[in-house]
């Protein structure tokens, strides 16, 4: 995917498009403010093969639970093909870039990482944050563990394989 097109998925009639982090999304009441929406760190390649970061917000809204009296912010549904649980037992070299094997969401459960894109920009990702990797072609990105703790991640392969050829 190219810059400016942060679709999470294209399944169904309408694309599920995450809003850019600069767009106000909330009511301004401090609790339901758009700043509290989950922000996804997107890693993507541009037409020249350079990898970049972009912060995007998950679309969704507040609603009451179907099974209790709780009110919560819920994202829109995101179709996925597979869910994979991964425990990293040996880290890759901290200077070797790689591409994402497919478009997928990655959620660290334990252990943090530093990501570096080909432009030299770096971001720290901690457990519970969300990464959307889309740099399936181009110069790739580098992943570095923040410490010696075991890294466990949940990987959600997005259900739109036809987009892999569009990168």
Task: Please explain how this structure is put together.
- The chain has 167 residues and is an all-beta fold.
- It is 0% helix and 44% strand.
- A seven-stranded mixed β-sheet has the order 3-5-4-12-9-14-8, with no helix packed on it. A three-stranded antiparallel β-sheet has the order 11-10-13, with no helix packed on it.
- β6 (60-64) and β7 form a beta hairpin.
- The radius of gyration is 16 Å and the shape is globular.
- It starts with 6 loop residues before the first strand and ends in a 9-residue tail after the last strand.
Q: What class would the helix/strand composition place it in? A: mainly beta
Per DSSP E runs of 2 or more residues, the count of β-strands stands at 14
Major β-sheet annotation? 7 strands, mixed
Query: Uncertain runs with pLDDT below 50, 5 residues or more?
Result: 1-35, 161-167
Summarize the structure.
0% of the residues lie in helices and 44% in strands. It has 167 residues and is mainly β. The strands form four sheets. Strands 3-5-4-12-9-14-8 form a seven-stranded mixed β-sheet, with no helix packed on it. It has a three-stranded antiparallel β-sheet with strand order 11-10-13, with no helix packed on it. A two-stranded antiparallel ribbon has the order 1-2.
């Amino acid at each position: 995917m190219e810059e400016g097109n942060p679709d999470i998925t294209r399944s169904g009639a309408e694309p599920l498009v995450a809003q850019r982090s600069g767009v106000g999304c909330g009511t301004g009441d401090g609790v339901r403010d758009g700043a509290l929406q989950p922000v996804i760190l997107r890693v993507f390649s541009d037409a020249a093969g350079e990898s970049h970061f972009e912060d995007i917000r998950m679309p969704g809204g507040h609603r009451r639970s179907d099974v209790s009296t709780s009110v919560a912010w819920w994202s829109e549904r995101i179709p996925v093909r597979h869910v994979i649980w991964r425990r990293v037992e040996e880290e890759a070299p901290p200077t070797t870039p790689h591409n994402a094997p497919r478009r997928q969401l990655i959620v660290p459960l334990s252990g943090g990482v530093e990501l570096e894109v080909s432009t030299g920009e770096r971001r720290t990702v901690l457990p519970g944050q969300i990464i959307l990797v889309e740099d399936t072609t181009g110069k790739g990105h580098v992943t570095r563990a923040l410490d010696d703790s075991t890294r466990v991640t949940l990987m959600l392969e997005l259900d739109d394989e036809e987009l892999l050829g569009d990168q």
